[in-house]
## 1
Amino acid sequence: MDWEHHGVKIVAASTLDSNTPQTAGMTRAAAITHARTGARKLWAGTVVVQPNAKTGPHHHGDLETVLYIVRGRARMRWGEHLEFSGEAGPGDFIYVPPYVPHQEINALPDEPCEAVVVRSGQDPVVVNLNLESPEPAGEGAPTPFHPV
């Protein structure tokens, strides 16, 4: 086996690819993809939600998603009407099952929320949903990044 070309791949932070499906209010950047590393079963990257911002409601189809909070505080809303919520801080993990409507909210007014995200497949599935958020008006208004 040619381990030099088919072994470990290192992806520098400065080379992450933001040319990936986006949801208003967050910035996704891909690190581990088939095209970049040869990965076949995983997708990994980063996500940043700016201070006091919230994403648009969305889901990721049949993919499982794990977020690891690196910095800041994430408030997650989920459910058919985003009626459930919980928060996670640095060092915490969040698991999002397939097809679960959810919304990421930066719970802090003065610090970005940064996370590592890993998904169970290579397809860049992001299904943006037309749901109204129960978050109070004026707190964490969605901020656009790229149209989807």
## 2
Amino acid sequence: MNINQALDLATEKNLDLVLVSPNSDNPVCKIMNYGKHKFEQAKREKESKKKQKTVELKEIRVTPNIEEHDFNFKAKNAKKFLSDGNKVKITVRFRGRELNYVKLGEEVLNQFVEALNEVSTLEKRPLLEGKNMFIILAPNK
């Protein structure tokens, strides 16, 4: 069909002439309400975004000489974060002379890994960066 005929037909029906496939030998056009089409497309995209789950990284900070009650409390919070589907970054912060006892911080992180092994997997081994040592735990599938 000629472009002018198609445009006349579209204006007759109070609709738009939309180019569907411009790259083919014969360009393909469609007569439709373009505003309604864009609205429905945006609605579908919004609906698909609703169903997506974004994974956040929650951080828990501890010291190398953490007490048992504090450890249990932080482990309980980490378990809650993991059950919600978030990743957990556990950071041991060394201050002053505590940097001489990096092994204590590594032991604390290993305790967290053992305490949370039924709900998580270790994603990143203990790593010392400056005055902080951290691990990242990901929830089990």
## 3
Amino acid sequence: MDWKNFIKSLTLENLIPSILLTAAGVLIIRLLMKLFDKALERSRLQRTANSMLRSGMKLLLYFLLGLMVCSQLGVDVSSLVALLSVVSLAISLAVQGALSNTVGGVMLLATHPFAAGDYVEIGAIGGTVLEVGLTYTKLVTPDNKVISIPNSTATTQEITNFSASGSRRVELIVSASYDSPAATVKQALLEAAAVEAVLAEPAPFVGVQSYDDSAIAYVLRIWCQSQDYWDVYYAVNERIKEQFDEAGIVMTYPHLNVHLDRMG
């Protein structure tokens, strides 16, 4: 573009409409942004997504206004639009992974399958959600490792949220000798479950899981608040051994009994 000729071509006839168009466009953009902000406030999107969408909308509106003003001044914007399209395509190809993660982040923030503080499993990875970012979701594992999962991966994996309902079930499988009465074992397990953080409703449940070669397997199911899961898990596990010792219940291990018969 010949800028010298363009500047010479500027007159009051095209400058004044352009200035008026700019002023009116700025006012309209501000009005539209207020309406857009109200729509975002009514949505279920988190603050991170709101900020990104607001910035994108504002940039788009001012870009359109710039094209309109340039057209009013007599600038051929078709070549500019074509150039920007080529540049946008090149940038999108160069940052395809980042864009995919960003889109995944918007999907996670919009659908809200989990929030910070929830204990989740994303695929085969389990941990407490530390942060839901635009490109990565960070989990803290029980052994205090921070794992960053690309959002594009998270959106394609099966997500299990253990904190969504506020409570979580603890299930323990324990083996006891065939010589121990089932009623005694079940009572000992219920007494072991008498931990303060265990919920009264649903009530603790004990049942026979299976009859194995060397022992009977019992299942103990109790409920607690999601944040108390590991405390309850370990506390009840310790109490089971104590209650079994008090009741004289033997926790057997795999063994083989050999009987020898004397001949003649």
## 4
Amino acid sequence: MKLILEMLSYPFLLRAFAGGILISLCAALLGVSLVLKRYSMIGDGLSHVSFGALSVAMAAGWAPLGVSVPVVVAAAFFLLRITENSRVKSDAAIAMISAGALAVGIVVTSLTTGMTTDVSSYMFGSILAMSPSDVKLAAALSAVVLFLFVFCYNKMFAVTFDENFARAAGVRVSFYKILTAVLTAVTIVVGMRMMGAMLISSLIIFPALTSMGLFKSFRAVVLSSGAVSMVAFCVGMVVSYRFSIPAGASVVLVNIGAFGAFRVLEKIRTVWGKRREE
């Protein structure tokens, strides 16, 4: 408790906690649908697209977020269209876009500014450098994501599990798939400041996989995923501060630990259930 109070006495750590918790929650909620639809690696692909766009923007002297947000949203839309209307599978499409965008970013960076502090912060994350404007942006994003997720919950549930049934029921499947992709794209762009392009996809994948091992209903998985993501982020920040290790990597390791712990609980519950039946 003394360590936590000490951390909360620093304004930059308060901003890091506020922004990180909000982004972690958004990524976890969206991650459930993405993992179930086998689009879990879209976070990794879009983060590399964002890095490429940010590199070009900084080389040209443009506003990084003003350039990267529309580019990443367009990439998300393109990924959906190319996998729906061609023989290219989702994993192959994501790999192509990811590798190409990352290569563009590296080439542009090497030919212009070089590996500056700003470029490194977007590649590997720099959560302690979050400004008040970053936190406000994270808060606005979280409000939009939470509102749309709750408001469209039933339709997103139907689209996630059975697109054909959803179409038959009159749900605009394409619209809700695009909405999910757009929200994911914006979450990734904002979250890169916290986790970096190399680790941001972990916020989408791990909480959802962790919760799916213990719960079966969609609602329970969503609620558990959000809770696991926020708790893992807070614990990761404390571990990072205590042992002076990078915050992003620390959060990922805590998520891995939570995944392992939930798997153990699942095994215990399975064994206990079999014994009770006997």
